[in-house]
Amino acid sequence: MFRYIVRRLLQMILTFFGATFVVFALMFANQDDPIQALVGEKTASDSLRAALTERYHLDEGFLTQYWYYMKGLLTGDLGKSLTGRDISEMLADAWPVTIRLAILAILIAAAIAVTTGVYAGIRRGGLFDNGTLLMTLLLLAMPIVVLAPLAQLVFAMELRWFPATTTKNATLYELLLPALVLATTVIATQLRVTRTSVVENLRADYVRTARAKGLAPRRVTWVHVLRNSLIPVVTLIGVDLGVLMSGAIVTEEVFNIPGVGFNLARGIRTEDGPLVVGFVSVLVIIFLIVNLAVDLLYAALDPRIRYE
Amino acid sequence: MTDIKATMDALPGIDHRAPLLQINDLHVEFRTRDGVAKAVNGASFWLSPGETLAILGESGCGKSVTAQAIMGILESPPGHLTAGEIRYRGVDLLKLPEAQRRKVRANRIAMIFQDALSALNPVYTVGFQLAELFRMHRGMSRSDAKNRAVDLLDQVKIPAARSRVNDYPHQFSGGMRQRVMIAMALALDPEVLIADEPTTALDVTVQAQIMGLLAELQQQRNMGLVLITHDMGVVADVADRISVMYAGRVVEEAPVHDIYARPGHPYTRALLESIPRLDLKGHQLNVIRGLPPALTDIPRGCAFNPRCRYAKDPCRQDPAPPAYAIAPHRTARCHFFREVLGE
Lengths: 308, 343
Known about the structure:
The structure holds two protein chains of two kinds. Chain A is an all-alpha fold.
């Protein structure tokens, strides 16, 4: 187990360099005139232009810029955004709210998907099963650009159950509506995977044994079938958590949540290279850690998997 | 623990003088989209304490389905028990409410399955799966139940039981896994044990060990054993009586020595002739012509008639042959049993 973790950590270093290099290259290729993007409509003065070019090494070649960037990153200095703010400071502001939002969303999604999926699996082909199938199809068909504003309009503006927008120090209650919206993006697949997995496991021989042991149906389902069925679902939940942390751009925009997606969207719009690369680098690390955690959890759920 | 067995005896209508297990005219069918498959068509047999009854037959003859029906673990749908009685000590199990039926399982009638690797839950330790029985049926604490699990592994002669109790099924060898299965079935001291092809998945030397262990534990506990198998070699060594099944029916029932010496049903006879024998080395082996009938389309009259060399007109007409009493303690469902016996 220990050796496995060390090997995975070494792999993560490689992945990290690869991913940041690609992001840096994409950002570099996309750059037209970041200084102009920064000042907007006005024209930048020659002295300002020279100062900014100097500070961000904008006249250097790609590899040199990458070198400067990695040097800063490894010494804990993410540099400054083109707006002049420290990127590490922006990250410290954005991450907590995004993490809270993503975890809240994944908890809601997993709780609903697993319980509903198990019931649908037990009553395969019944009314409940077909009903959830229809619901999940609807959810899958509904893009988040429609769902997020719609939810805001109905539940916040009209019904006034939730606040319409949030702030940096949002409470869990304020984050509930955006988290629900985010949860709908992942709930359908999680539910279908749980349901299929339960249906498969219900046919397994060990279920017959459990029944022959005179166990109550509830125990057979929630102890014997569930743990086996969860093995594929856990992987999916892990990947979804990573996606939710990085992919909440639309939701964060709509509900005005100053999180990672919100900043990232602005950075891309203003061609703010250091900001985008800084945020993505941290995203890559988070993603890798979540993936490692999922793999370790996998081994905890399925004793047949041993990492050596 | 004896107290709990005593309260269990409150099973309504229990009669300790009644036969341990009696199956009367059991019918099971599977209703599928492709039609109704009649898996069991009037199976009847009985079992006494300490006795071993072998149920013999080709795959698909309804022997496993019968076992699952006795346990009450038939997958339903598609399986439906359409007629018959399953009496344990006089109590018709089919008339019991599900909660009481569940208490009969493992407590009074337990079952061993063929492939222990798939029959054990892969994600729990064998200790957990054994202890679960004591926790759920006897209300024991986790640690007491765990100790009982270790005792059980000792009883089925698994070395280093105290440490192996924390292992997972995949960490055991095939033979050891089947021992775990046996331990699990015997945990609550059942009076009837149904073993569904307990040694089929094992290699020959291990088979003998497992059968030996089963016989030993059966004697210690004076348990009734229903041994389901297609292996006539296994049967000859351990069984007291044999019920031969064909197309969901018991076609012959007899004490083991009688059946080997003089089979009373053409199917039994054909089965015996299809065993390779050392003294007939070099001769052509007799095989049974044709295939067992599809359960959706069982022949009229005697189900075996299309493959039978004794078959005449009455065999091809309903009703099917009744169970003729051909000798004391022997029945055969064949109109021409005298010919078959060679009288």
